[in-house]
Amino acid sequence: VSLDREAASEITIRITASVTEGDTASADVLIRVLDVNEAPSAPVVSGTVVAENTAGAVIGRVTASDPDAGGSSNGRLSFTVDDARFEIVSGVLKLKDGVSLDREAASSVDLVITVTDGGGLSAQRSVTITVGDANEAPTAPVVTGTTVAENAAGAVIGTVTASDPDGDALSVTVDDARFEVVGGQLKLRDGISLDHEAE
Ligand SMILES: [Ca+2]
Ligand SMILES: [Ca+2]
Ligand SMILES: [Ca+2]
Ligand SMILES: [Ca+2]
C-alpha cells in the first residue's frame, strides 16, 4: 500500500487501545502525506508546420501536465527546444524574431522539446516540423546573345535561361511580336527578318 499526496494530502486514522475487561480509549491522529516530486508528461505540440520565408513564424502551443499541479514548484513547468533557431515563449513554439526558414534548403526540421518542473524532473518529445512551401518568383531571364544577322528570316539570337527557387516549370515570352522564344531559344519568327539600314 502506498499513498498519493495529489489524491489526498492528509488522512485521519483512529487508534484504539483496549484491555481485556473491555475498556477502550481512542485517539484520532492526523497523518500528512509529504510531497514527492513526480515527472511531468512528455510535451505535446499543437502544430506541425512552419511557413517558409516568415521570420518569427509560430508553429503551435506546447503543453504538458504534471502530477504535482497547483502552486508547488514541483508542478511548475518550463519548456526548452534544442534548436537555437526556435524558442518557446509563453507556451508557444516559434521561430526566433528575425529567423526564417527556406523550404528549398530543408523541407523539415527535427526538434526535441524538453519540459522541466521546478523540482528538476524532465520529459522530452521529438517532433518533426514540416517547412510549408511558399511560391517564389523566378530569376530574371538571361539571353546568351545580343546580335542578329540582317536579312535572315527566323534567325536565332541566343539561348534564354531562367530558374525558379521552387523548381516550377517556367514559360518565357518576349514583348516584340517579331520575336519568339521557342525551345529555350530567342529567335525571329519564321519568315521575319530585320534590316540593318532601317533599324
Ligand atoms: Ca507529488
Ligand atoms: Ca513534478
Ligand atoms: Ca518555395
Ligand atoms: Ca516559383
Q: Gist?
A:
It contains no helices and 14 strands. With 199 residues, the protein is an all-beta fold.
Label the structural class: mainly beta
Q: What would the average pLDDT be, to the nearest integer?
A: 95
Under the CATH scheme, which architecture of the largest domain would be assigned? Sandwich
Percent helix range:
under 10%
Q: Care to count the β-strands?
A: 14
- In CATH, the topology of the largest domain is named Immunoglobulin-like
Outline the biggest β-sheet.
Answer: 4 strands, antiparallel
Biggest sheet, spatial arrangement of strands: 3-5-8-7
Overall radius of gyration: 36 Å
Strand content: 35-45%
Q: What general outline do the C-alpha atoms trace? A: rod-shaped
Number of domains: 2
The stretches of 5 or more residues where confidence is low (pLDDT under 50) are: none
List the total number of helices.
0
Q: What is the CATH class of the largest domain?
A: Mainly Beta
Written overview of the protein:
By secondary structure, the protein is mostly beta strands. The protein folds into two domains: 44-132, Immunoglobulin-like, CATH 2.60.40; 135-199, no CATH class. The protein is built from no helices and 14 strands. Strands 3-5-8-7 form a four-stranded antiparallel β-sheet, with no helix packed on it. A four-stranded mixed β-sheet has the order 4-10-9-6, with no helix packed on it. It is rod-shaped and about 140 Å long. The protein starts with 9 loop residues before the first strand and ends in an 11-residue tail after the last strand. The structure holds calcium ion (CA) (4 copies). One calcium ion binds at residues 52, 103-104, 133-134, 136, 165-166.
